[in-house]
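Reading a protein record of the kind used here takes only a little practice. The integers have meaning only within a learned vocabulary of local backbone shapes. With that in mind, consider the following protein and its fold in token form:
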Amino acid sequence: MRALVVYCHPKETSFTAAIRDVVVDKLRDAQAEVRVIDLYRSGFAPVLTEAELDIYEDTPANRAPVAQDVEDVLWCDTLIFVYPTWWYGLPAMLKGWLDRVLLPDVAFLMPDGQNDNIRPGLTHITRLAVFTTCGASWWLTQLIGSPGKRMILRGVRAICAKRCRTAFAAHYLMDSSTEASRRAHLDRVARKMEGFIGALPARQKEARA
């Protein structure tokens, strides 16, 4: 397994960082190869520039401004996003990463004479997951339509492998969270990861030994 974790949060002491650590630990427990893109720490520039837009469909020249990120996406078979949900959607930094990195002939194929619509380009990705936090409640997030979750688990998934496995976990009402609720959520993330990557919990491994 080759797992790429795209992490987005400006504060290293955040609860989102703790979620990332659980995700990475579970991947390493499963002996996966792991790469982490920390968008804030790497100084990623999220704005798609005029110059990049001019070469957006010029492949492979369009990869040059984000060459390492593109290489990471093409390398992985498991793609995991860890971020806070702000205004029901993705942080601007993460949305900009999607805009700049998931390019034509990288993430999808453009329409041509035989195809009126785009076609999947990430067919090597067989697992896709989102781990997030939300200030709003579950019901209010559903009422608004969960645009961030839908963008990744519907939009990005549509250009991945046909039977791409997905996982999702969110801590809702984050602004009124407690130590107990945060601890319980980290446990939930750990269980989700075990199911997502097919890893056995440590206690089951010991029982089978």
Notes: Residues 179-197 form the longest helix (19 residues). The longest strand covers residues 78-85. Strands lie at 2-7, 33-38, 78-85, 108-109, 119-120, 127-134, 165-171. DSSP finds eight helices and seven strands in the chain.
